[in-house]
């Protein structure tokens, strides 16, 4: 049970991290962004204390935000540490990729330097990876653009689990620091743009200076910028783009002026673009590049006017989020798939089964009068539907009502083939696997599991699911099968498993026992798997040990 809970823990951690990163884009000012970064360390990364140290123009670092302890926040917020002391800290201890960890056995020499710090005394660690109150963990933030210009440093303390972060926690902290650096840079950019817009709304003399400031910020912004028409027949057409956007999409400015964002967006994301409001709108979607590929970007819109009474234009900030999306997809895949075989894990398997089930079995066939009511409806039901469709409050349609498109899962009759097709659940347990593990070691056992997973995957259809439940147990989901179809599939899968498997020049062989269950509405996911598991054991006991080893 502990092993099966790990994917849930990782998925919950990923969701918290995703929410913390999403919150970074909701802050309106630089100060709000800095505090949101500190709060995200506590709420999203599992630390009790989080601190954001920001590089000042003179190079020293000031504590700009603190979260987790009101007393500490009041004591050290706004205090400054010299750049030399910080560079010393970032060169000490252990380098965890871009992170820097200084254990308490080395950090005692830092107690008297000029970097503001808050710590409490504590006992010596009881085990190797226990967190000590004097341990220090820093996550440097660098400005975007591929350089090594230090933007600030995130410092964290007191993990809630009391242990030093493992590989998963380090990767999450490092990715969060990278996204925080982007959010802080964008907040500064937005602040500069807002100041320029304020000047544009003032007097005519200040307007000319502001236009130049705007042009500089627009042209040399590190992320993509575009100006588009608002209203009229050419609404949304791109009028002007900066070099960063041209590089991002692989198209020159002269070509981009022929398009609007609606022409460039991925077909699946056109609805997202249309739902994005003009002023203050924000959306994450994919835009096409010149080579035909699509790039994940974040669009942020604001409205600007050429003069006080002149035409209004749409200013769009385009940020490249491809790397973050790739991280999110990678984390989601790792949370829902088995690390050894690459197959869906037990959590993903249960999710896919649950998606096909409802809480009640299939309802009996409707009478002739009920069928007429379903086809034509009565006055009262028509009025009720119209009332709800107009966007006013009303009671939701009952489950199983006229607009319930759920297709109930049924179990075919094993004795009489009445043509019913259902979702077959084939529970597979390998025979003889334990002896291979015991005789040849876990390396050979892992190689056998990987090969079995490959053979099972090649024997099913594209829409079917092959999952590893744990150990030497696999489950195959195959929809649209009758009882005879499922029995034939089990035979094909067993025959695919039993040929010898070569590992390090040695041929080993395992058999397989299959139990066929059916996912049926009205059952829980646990009941579905338990039924298939029990039938597998019945099938296993019905064959002799020799025949089990032979498949």
From TrEMBL:
Residue intervals of the PAC domain: 281-333
EC number(s) from the headed UniProt entry: 2.7.7.65
Domain PAS: 210-269
Coiled-coil residues: 186-213
CDD domains: GGDEF, PAS
UniProt keyword list: Coiled coil, Nucleotidyltransferase, Transferase
Segments forming domain GGDEF: 421-551
Pfam families for the chain: GAF, GGDEF, PAS_9
Molecular function GO labels: diguanylate cyclase activity
Enzyme class: transferase
Protein name: Diguanylate cyclase CdgB
């Amino acid at each position: 049970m502990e092993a099966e809970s790990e994917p849930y823990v990782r998925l919950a951690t990923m969701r918290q991290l995703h929410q913390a990163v999403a919150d970074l884009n909701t802050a309106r000012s630089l100060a709000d962004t800095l505090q949101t970064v500190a709060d995200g360390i506590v709420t999203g990364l599992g630390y009790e204390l989080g601190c954001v140290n920001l590089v000042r123009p003179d190079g020293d670092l000031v504590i700009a935000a603190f979260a987790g302890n009101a007393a500490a926040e009041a004591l050290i917020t706004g205090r400054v540490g010299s750049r030399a002391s910080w560079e010393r800290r970032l060169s000490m201890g252990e380098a965890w990729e871009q992170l820097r960890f200084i254990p308490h056995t080395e950090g005692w020499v830092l107690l008297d330097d000029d970097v503001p710090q808050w710590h409490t005394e504590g006992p010596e660690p009881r085990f190797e990876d226990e967190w000590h109150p004097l341990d220090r963990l820093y996550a440097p933030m660098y400005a975007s653009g591929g350089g090594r210009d230090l933007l600030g440093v995130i410092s964290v303390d007191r993990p809630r689990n009391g242990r030093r972060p493992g590989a998963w926690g380090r990767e999450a902290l490092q990715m969060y620091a990278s996204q925080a650096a982007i959010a802080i840079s964008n907040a500064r950019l937005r602040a500069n743009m807002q100041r320029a817009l304020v000047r544009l709304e003032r007097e005519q003399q200040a307007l000319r200076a502001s236009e130049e400031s705007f042009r500089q910020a627009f042209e040399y912004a590190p992320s993509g910028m575009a100006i588009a028409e608002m209203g009229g027949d050419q609404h949304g057409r791109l009028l002007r783009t900066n070099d960063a956007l041209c590089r991002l999409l692989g198209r020159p400015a002269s070509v981009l002026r022929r398009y609007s964002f609606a022409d460039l967006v991925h077909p699946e994301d056109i609805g997202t673009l249309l739902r994005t409001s003009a002023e203050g709108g924000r959306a994450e979607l994919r835009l096409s590049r010149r080579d035909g590929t699509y790039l994940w970007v974040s669009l942020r819109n604001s409205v600007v006017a050429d003069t006080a009474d002149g035409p209004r234009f749409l200013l769009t900030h385009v940020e490249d989020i491809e790397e973050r999306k790739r991280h999110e997809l990678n984390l989601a895949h790792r949370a829902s798939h088995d690390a050894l075989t690459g197959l869906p894990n037990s959590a993903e398997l249960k999710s896919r089964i649950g998606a096909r089930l409802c809480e009640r079995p299939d309802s009996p066939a409707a009478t002739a009068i009920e069928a007429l009511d379903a086809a034509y409806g009565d006055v009262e039901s028509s009025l009720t539907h119209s009332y709800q469709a107009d966007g006013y409050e009303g009671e939701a349609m009952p489950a199983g009502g006229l607009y319930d498109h759920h297709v109930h899962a049924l179990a075919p009759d094993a004795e009489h083939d009445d043509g019913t097709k259902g979702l077959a659940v084939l529970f597979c347990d390998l025979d003889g696997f334990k002896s291979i593990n015991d005789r040849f070691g876990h390396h050979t056992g892992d190689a056998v599991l990987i090969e079995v997973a490959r053979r099972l995957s090649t024997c099913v259809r594209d829409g079917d699911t092959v999952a590893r439940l744990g150990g030497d147990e696999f489950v195959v989901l195959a929809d649209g099968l009758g009882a005879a179809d499922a029995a034939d599939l089990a035979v094909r899968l067993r025959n695919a498993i039993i040929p010898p498997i070569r590992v390090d020049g040695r041929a080993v062989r395992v058999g397989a026992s299959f139990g066929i269950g059916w996912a049926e509405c009205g059952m829980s996911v646990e009941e579905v798997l338990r039924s298939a598991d029990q039938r597998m054991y019945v099938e296993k006991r019905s064959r002799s040990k020799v025949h089990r080893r032979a498949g």
